[in-house]
Each structure stands twice: as C-alpha cells, then as structure tokens.
Amino acid sequence: MTRMPSCTALFVAPDVTLYHTGPALDHGPLPSVFYFALSGQDSLCLDPYNQPVQFLSGQMLRVFSLTLPAHEAGLSPHDALGTWAEDLSKGIDCLQTFIDQIQLTLDFAISKGFVDPHRVAIAGLSRGGLIAALAAAQEPRFRTLLAFAPLTKLALAKEFSALKENPLVASYDAMKRADLLADRRIRLYIGNRDTRVSTEACFAFTMALVEKAHEARIRSAPIELIVSPSIGQMGHGTSAEIFRQGANWLIECLIHHG
C-alpha cells in the first residue's frame, strides 16, 4: 500500500488537538473510528502504524486520533512507556488524563456533527490497544473495540518491572474493566508468542470478557480473539493482512450492520 491518507487538525482545547482523515466534515455525521498508535498524526499517516487507516480509506467513515502521552513532537516513542512509568511512580496519572481527553473529543466531534454517536468504534495498536480498552470501559458510546497486539496489563511491560506492586500501575490492567466491556463488540489480534505484551495476558483478558458476558446473560457474545503466527521483534509485529482483516471487520460493524 502506498497511498497515505492526509490528516488535518481540530483544536478542541488549549492542550487537546484532534486529528482526522476521511470524508469532508461538511458531509454531516458519519460512522467513525478513534484509533491510537503513536502521535495523532503518525497514527493516521505513518506507515506501517496507520495501515488500518489505509485499509479504511475510501469508505464513508471517518478516523480520528489524538497524540498518546509522551508521543509529542521531538520525543521518541521508544521512550514513551518509560515516561509513563516515571509519571505513574510519582502519582501523576497521565493515562487517566488522556482517557478523559478522548471522552472530551468524542463529545466535541458529536456536538459538531462529525460523528454518528450510534456508530462509533475505538481501536488501537499495542499500547494504543490498552488505551482503547480503557477508554471504551469509561465511555459506553464506544460500542465496538478493536485492538492489534494489545498491551492488556501495564505491569507486564518491561518499563514497569520495578513498579509491579504500585497500586496505580496495577489498576491499569484491562481485565479489571472486563465487566464494563462485556456488552461490546470486541475483536483482538495477537501473535502466538508475543513476549512484549504477553499472548497469555491477552488470552486471559479475552476470557474475562467472555465470563462477564456470560454472567450478564449475553448469549453468543461477539467477543473474538484471533491468534496468528508471531512476526517481528519479540513476536510483537502485526502484518498488513491482519490490519486489513481488522479494518474490514470495522467496516462490517459500522457500515453494513450499523
């Protein structure tokens, strides 16, 4: 894939910029996806991280993004989780602040008539997958959740090895939000030996979701985990084909089924 979607910026608040790509905003409310990988611009425009966005290009569907904490211009994304760990160790909850910003921008986009509030999904890659799950748990209007190679338990990331017992870090375990997510449409993709974010942790999160759905008497809960052969460093890569499958699933959920 060579065609890069162009993205533009919307200034929502003094420290909050919402990036978007897709059909012109004057077309009125459309099905939408909030997608997180790196910075807002890179999530939408930098290959290969934006490949889900590329596969959504040409649809009557908008994609929005925000810049993840510690992914601002001039900062290396390789250092970001270390910065998160430093902040959380000091009691600075950069993740909750960001999740609140997602909720703020969703309110903004709906109020401006950009997003159909009944057809809005949230998606993420790796650390963005954790953010997507946490934001969906807080914001019930995200009825569809998609994550590629998601970090599901912050304490398992190597940057948090010295903070495993920190209560704030321990609270960022997606499994602890399973009861709030059990009524959503969810699809997770993971490599069969992802040692960066832990295949086992992703499986455990999925099973927690399924059990909570069962307790809520949800029959045939639309919660899926797709495991494929690991690629890349630490088995943490995601192939173009997996990104394509995920994008097609979003199209099916948001456009064909509504």
Give the arrangement of secondary structure elements.
Blueprint: E1 8-13, E2 16-21, E3 30-36, H1 40-45, H2 51-56, E4 62-65, H3 80-89, H4 94-111, E5 115-125, H5 127-138, E6 144-148, H6 167-171, H7 178-181, E7 185-191, H8 199-215, E8 223-228, H9 240-256
Parallel strand pairs: 3-4, 3-5, 5-6, 6-7, 7-8
Antiparallel strand pairs: 1-2, 2-4
List keywords for this structure.
8 strands, alpha/beta, eight-stranded mixed beta sheet, 258 residues
Protein architecture, described:
By secondary structure, this protein is α/β, with parallel strands linked by helices. Helix content is 37%, strand content 20%. It has helices at 40-45, 51-56, 80-89, 94-111, 127-138, 167-171, 178-181, 199-215, 240-256; strands spanning 8-13, 16-21, 30-36, 62-65, 115-125, 144-148, 185-191, 223-228. The chain has an 8-stranded mixed sheet, sandwiched between helices. Helix 4 packs across helix 5. The chain starts with 7 loop residues before the first strand and ends with a helix. The mean pLDDT is 95.
